[in-house]
Amino acid sequence: MTQLLHRKAQIKEAFNQFMSTRMDQVSEDAISPSPEYQALTTECTELFATIYDQLPPDIQILFTQYEEVVTLIQGLAESTMYEQGIKDGLQLSQILYNY
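RE: above sequence
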């Protein structure tokens, strides 16, 4: 039983590594080159800097922490959606195979 749990953990880790690598690839190949993405990223960076520069130092730290948490939330949402997409794709494949 312990061996089965260890194997399951290894598979989960390998899947997470695959998913992370693939998401990085998609970002680099499909998202980052997009002119719309580049424009929005530039605008976001400029807005952040404008707001940040107008804040007192103690609030700058708080604002940076907020931005870090928002980024973590976004990453979690992206990972969850990617994983669900894989599950949906496998389920659709099974449906089509049995059809």
